[in-house]
Amino acid sequence: MDVLRITTSGSVDDGKSTLIGRLLYDTKSIPQDKMEALHAASKRKGLDFTDLSLLTDGLIAEREQGITIDVAHIYFSTPNRKYIIADTPGHFEYTRNMVTGSSTAQVSLILIDARKGIVDQTYRHYFIANLLRIKHLVVCVNKMDLVDYAQERFDEIVEDFKQLTAQAAFKEQEVKFIPASSLYGENVVTRSEKISWYDGPTLLDYPEQIDFSHEGDALPARLPVQYVIRPKSEAFHDFRGFAGKIASGSFKVGDEIVSLPSQHRSKIKSIEKFETQLNEAHARDSVVITLEDEIDSSRGNILVKAGEEPQALKEITANVCWMDQTKLVAGKTYLLQHGINRVKAKVQGIQHVIEVTTHRQQDDVKELGLNDIGKITLKVASPIFADPYIQNPANGSFILVDEFSNSTVAVGFVE
Amino acid sequence: MNSIKWQFPRALEDEAIYILRETAAQFERPAILFSGGKDSITIVRLAQKAFYPGKIPFPLLHIDTGHNFPETIQFRDWLVESLGLELIVRNVQDSIDQGKVKEESGKYASRNALQTVTLLDAIEELKFDACIGGARRDEEKARAKERIFSVRDEFGQWNAKIQRPELFDMLNGKINIGENVRVFPISNWTELDVWNYIREEKLEIPSIYFSHEREIIERDGMYWPYSTFLNTTDEEKPFVSKVRFRTVGDMTCTAAVMSEADQLEDIIAEIMEAKISERGARIDDKRSEAAMEKRKQAGYF
Q: What distance in Å separates the CA atoms of residue B175 and residue B147, rounded to the nearest whole number?
């Protein structure tokens, strides 16, 4: 059984909470006491429907203000796989939360109100899903009941959206359009008879069919060393294992590897997962690797397959999303964390900022503020071994940490 | 739907092991907060796997309220012995004796809230900079918003509004002196995931999770385990019934469920059909809608 992560977002009132509630309800994922508490809480608020946002708006401040502040995680399962929904608020620190929720997602779900069509929020959402290279995009045209389930209206919105995708940088993204009514459960989990002109998958069918088990196997193999295991016990006297989670690609016993930055070479002697010896391991597996030779490698180093070495980067150009109240200024030094490796980095310059609703670039900017997305150049104190994000996302992203507040202030995508 | 045998999604184990290795690498003195419940037992198993064939590089810290189920304490000692772990126990009774906290009175008296003070004192005394807990986001809605590396200030307080964003799988454990971090490796697991993991890994768990005969009383529509720690009224007469516990906390704040389930398979089937959520059996959460968030702000884990 695998885990699929979906990020959702939408404007206020486009029926997102109802949709998520529907998914949970129709897959029998809400216990009765929670459902009853929701009915009661909705009634207290004077609502004549069950407000499913109360299920996820858990913080006192959220309930007081009636808004979602933070990314909420929602879980449900089908017999096929486990789903994690990262639901991001549509109005508060939108870009920051949307980028955070999208960073781990394989599927991005955009909601469009059938009556309103494409709005500002749709542009922003699409821009982020495209920037982050999310492979699967679902465009749900919701509230079809309010347009009499008319195919013409659906086709119109699809046409409008296709003008957006035509200009996109990431053309390989699979975009699926699904007409639905979350209020009545049409095309959410079960197929709609009212939308008989549509013969594609429902909102749940679609992610159920995605096979991502070997996604990324063809990418270059990267294993960032998290921890060196040296038991020094009687039974494992000479054991020296490099523990880490494979970022991309796959490793086999016998593969020739290079440890970076030292460039020492060796061969893989064993790949272990607790007491099990594996012949081969893939992206996202947490393993321990032992080598034929005693080479010097420690935390922050990266093991790669010989012939697949990434370039050593001393200067980095990257798109960043700024996530902190304190603005980014050129000339300031931050800690750059690439995977698990931290180096000092100095901001050389800001190239431009991108207006996410119009996708327009603005040059000649002096600073980046909260929720801004822009392109910057950085100089690092010692080289990092990143791949370009568009080629290998798992080894192409980093975060910036403020040295004084220790806060995570930005996420970056290596160009 | 209920007849299908659910498998444990192994990607969750890989993620948890990654988090535990980051914890060992980024902090100087981490500890596992151990309650003897199924979630902390799962954490111990994951730590065993993360560092094998090396030893678990964290001690277990148990905040003993003195109101534990005896079966839980027995189990704790057995686990520590069989895995060769270091166990540190700090007692709520000591905090009471030192006058730092005051025992609650009345029929709802519990030491659940008091343990926060003992925990914060232990963190300060033992200089722990990271405490690993088995909390899950599906348990409770305040927890649904908490980070995997959750920074606490000098007073152990959680501030929901200034949490660090967590992107991809990158974890930022950098803290200022006096601050500490709560680490939640099984944030993304559900109750069912934990049970399926216990089944697939064949883990031992305390006997009170399985159906057994016990003296209970009925109060507010829930079944409370009868013990000398529980303040009862004259009308509350104990009676014996076949019950089990779905979650393990103190004897004064954990309700029992009527159950015949004496096998893991039956427990899992029961949970899949259950009409109440896990924390629906936690009396400590029923105090108010925001009970958990308020306790977290005060330093609860």
A: 15
